[in-house]
Write the structure tokens for this entry.
Amino acid sequence: MKVTLLAHTPEPEKIVAAAARLCYSPDGIDVLLDGLTEEKSKRFLDKLVEMGHLSPIEHVSFTFAVEGVSRTLSHQMVRHRIGSYSQKSQRYVGEDAFDYIVPPSVAANDEAQQIFVEQMEKIRTAYQTLRQLVHQEDARYVLPNACETKFIFTMNARSLHNFLKLRCCNRAQWEIRALAEAVYAEVKKVAPTLFSSAGPACVSEGTCPEGKMTCGQIAMVRDKYRNM
């Protein structure tokens, strides 16, 4: 898996602080950014988090490129509706030599891996044959969820907070959890205060919402994110 932060709103924390300042200040638009030092921006952001006033963080966005992941992951990803997605099309891009993602549990079991790899090769042969018989857009129906894909996605900071809360959780599916952790590491580099409270619910909200299905490792998870 490769996750790259392609672009983001310039000075994201300053922009969010300016938006928050507007809500509570009689000053005009032309002076909103005046004197907004890094320290003052941090105070505004800390106040927003404390008050639960999160609409100002929607003004900044982050764009990521993701590759080396499965269609299983991308199918989960687009369920995060407040985001924009562009994905490699199997309708227009041939998959005769498709790569595929092997789940760790399969890779750790010799028999399972043999079955898995043999099935991928059978699918590859079937796909190549079908492409000679029908349109490529119909031949793709035989392709597996394991098929490697690439996509670019953009989310505003509030949507990213929600994404990280759900997908950094230990109970999230392993592949999208790995993506979420990589995304978390990237946004923390460019907007550490804005994402200081981000992470799974036991970190961002202080409680685990999973009830009886909790992973039971809350202290360990909190330590992990405290040190990331």
